[in-house]
Amino acid sequence: PCICSKPSSKYCLKCETFMCDTCHQQHSSFRVTSTHTVIDAKQKKNEDFSICQEHKDVMRLFCVQCELFVCPSCFVSIHLDHRDKVLSITKAAHQQRIKLCSFTQPLKQQQQE
Description:
By secondary structure, the protein is α+β, with helices and mostly antiparallel strands. It is 40% helix and 16% strand.
């Protein structure tokens, strides 16, 4: 529940706090917290994402060179010189599927023989 005891609908990744819609509106209106990443509380409860421990932001990118998931802040501060090798997680997953298929295809052909 929210700190005001209402059911929570949002979660701030930076503050690591659940909040109701009313508190979320207040949270978003303050200059200090207006740039925080806020997600639906259901998403937090399902743990469908990974959080950067340093920046408390969702890791939305994958650095192919370092083989690491990175948040946008990590990309700008650490992985900017790898910009040609940083992909969205969706694109990185697609490329990995293609790579896996290229490895498994010869095995499937051997099984059929």
